[in-house]
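Researcher: I need the complex structure. Ligand is glyoxylic acid. Inputs:
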Amino acid sequence: MAVPRSDLSIDIDRLQQRLADLAAIGAIEGTDGCSRLALTDEDREGRDLVMAQMNELGLDITIDGIGNVVAVMPGQTKGPPVMTGSHIDTVRTGGRYDGNLGVLAGLEVIETLKTAGVIPKRPLAVAFFTDEEGARFPPDMLGSLVYVGGMPLEQALEIEAIDGPTVGEELTRIGYAGSAPLPAAAPHAFVELHIEQGPVLEAEGITIGAVTGVQGISWQEVTVTGQSNHAGTTPMHMRKDPGLVAVECAAFVREMAMDIGHPQVGTVGRIEFSPNLVNVIPASATFTVDLRNTDEAELRHCERRFADFLEAAAEVEDCTFEIRELARFEPVVFDPEVVALVETTAQELGQSVLRMPSGAGHDAQMLARVCPTAMIFTQSRDGLSHNPHEYTAPADLEAGANVLLHTLLALAES
Ligand code: GLV
Ligand code: MN
Ligand code: MN
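Model: Output:
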């Protein structure tokens, strides 16, 4: 070993350059953010860039049938790798850190080790998983879900995008339908570095989050159907307006979450009227509902309350409705030993650290089904994410990547 491990640290300028290079693909003009929805041309370009970096590092790369890419640095022994990684797809109005940081910091860790001549006992792997965002193809964390055997590949390939094509068609079109076996063999352990995407670390003045788990996620798509008619001639009391039902539901989701209180959250993020014209009472209204809570019973209770409200609101307006489940994941608790390792590693590196749950969904919650797993959070300025103005200061990126480096090393030597 050329350098004592305790002295190893990542090169923040190199990591920043990697983030900037990837963010240049699908860049949103006038911002630092980017738009690379899963399996679009922009996603393909991003994949090609990260694959090239994996190749430059001499890693063994595999691509599986859902397009997950895994790059392995051999260790001194064979066996399942200690894995890190995240995703490089973004929401349509995304930042440069969400997901990308976890993948590129993983490559930075490997470059740091290679430069120092360190070969850990176990292999190390860096992965990027397909369609973590779920914004184009629900559910979220689709690639990692299939990776761990939570959904058969055939079923995943049939999922339709919000703009039409299926996962299978788009994977083939962009050249990322690989052949590595699915479900994949379980790693030895998995640790994901991610920005917090919320305000807690910044508000508390703490650098590192040792993530204890991920809250439960419930996504539904509701389509309400009424009677399309002339906006000028139809008396108000004679309408069957699905648009009204949709906006009442949106207001209810907000009121319900406020009423239940922290940590319940509820969001109507997409709403579409058809035919969506100024002088036509809509024929139908389609909207999504995102409900999350760290407690499964609370989350179920919340789903029930929403269903009751929807039924009553539709009945009053004489409309019908259909519900399609887009995603449903129970809360996940991470491995206590790996969480403790993240915490002590941060402390040993002189960083302040807070144990905290994740409000966002992450690939780590899927990997937790098959191996000991935890996550490392770094601050998000103003708690902003899923927004091109998402920002994490270089010192925080550096601290997070160094905690990742030493956590992975400890796991790889264990
Ligand atoms: C995925 O990023 C989610 O939490 O919505
Ligand atoms: Mn993410
Ligand atoms: Mn995201």
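Model: Summary of the prediction. The first helix runs from residue 12 to 23.
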